[in-house]
């Protein structure tokens, strides 16, 4: 009887663990001495939300000055509302290339043609659809925040 009860308990425990298992195992990420926060899964800034070949940049958030791979990472881990970078501060280095570890200003990133100037790594062009989550823009999306 005792053995049965234990087996049942073990079964329950493994079921619960299986359900909570993340898509990809989390990795503590640091690139050239810069910590990347959020749900990172490798050392090139990929995260559980965005992890294609091209997802190799992290964004420093104005609110906490910490690098996160994406908006969702910040949302799930930070204890505050995100702030976007105002246009007046677009010459701040707030983009990190996960491949070579160089930091780009927001201006340089937006003018980069989705290629790292330093190591020529390709960035995900789809990120531009989410600029309004990180940077001040003129598009109506801004009010969605
Ligand atoms: Zn923040
Ligand atoms: Zn993420
Ligand atoms: Zn690079």
TrEMBL record:
Taxonomy, superkingdom: Bacteria
Location of the CHY-type domain: 40-121
Keywords of the record: Metal-binding, Signal, Zinc, Zinc-finger
GO molecular function terms noted in the UniProt entry: zinc ion binding
InterPro entries for the chain: Mito_Tim_assembly_helper, Znf_CHY, Znf_CHY_sf
Pfam families, per database record: zf-CHY (PF05495)
UniProt xrefs under SUPFAM superfamilies: CHY zinc finger-like (SSF161219)
Stretch forming the signal peptide: 1-18
PANTHER family listed in its UniProt record: HELPER OF TIM PROTEIN 13, ZINC FINGER PROTEIN
Protein name: Putative CHY-type Zn-finger protein
Species: Algoriphagus yeomjeoni
Lineage, top ranks: Bacteria, Pseudomonadati, Bacteroidota, Cytophagia, Cytophagales
